[in-house]
């Protein structure tokens, strides 16, 4: 769907309905494309707590350090 700035202001209900139908809305300003509104994708459900790297990490101090080092290594 293509919508002008005026459409966003006066016909926002139709724009939101297009997003509900998973359509992308292209925003036009003076006939030129300025951007695109993309519908939000449904987020996947979180996994099991037991699969989280910190689950049960307080058992032994060595395990805690190993898990923290593993998680921090992804940053760099």
Written account of the structure:
By secondary structure, the chain is of the alpha+beta class. The protein folds into two domains: 2-37; 48-76, no CATH class. 37% of the residues lie in helices and 18% in strands. It contains three helices and three strands. The chain has helices spanning 5-10, 12-20, 61-73; strands at residues 2-4, 25-29, 32-37. The protein has a three-stranded mixed sheet. The model has no long low-confidence stretch (mean pLDDT 82).
Brief digest:
The chain is of the alpha+beta class. It is 37% helix and 18% strand. The chain contains 3 helices and 3 strands; from the N terminus they run βααββα.
List the helices and strands and how they pair.
Elements: E1 2-4, H1 5-10, H2 12-20, E2 25-29, E3 32-37, H3 61-73
Q: What does the oligomeric state look like here?
A: single chain
Largest sheet: 3 strands, mixed
Global structural class: alpha+beta
How is the largest sheet built, in terms of strand order? 1-2-3
State the helical fraction: 25-40%
Low-confidence stretches: none
The gyration radius over C-alpha positions equals 23 Å
Spell the H/E element sequence. Answer: EHHEEH
Count of alpha and pi helical runs: 3
* Total number of strands: 3
State the shape: elongated
Strand content: 15-25%
Whole-number count of domains: 2
């Amino acid at each position: 769907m293509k919508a002008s700035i005026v459409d966003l202001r006066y016909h926002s209900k139709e724009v939101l309905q297009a997003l509900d139908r998973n359509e992308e809305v292209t925003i036009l300003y003076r006939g030129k494309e300025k951007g695109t509104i993309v519908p939000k994708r449904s987020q996947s459900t979180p996994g099991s707590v037991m699969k989280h790297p910190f689950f049960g990490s307080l058992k032994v101090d060595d395990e805690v350090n190993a898990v923290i080092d593993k998680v921090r290594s992804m940053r760099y």
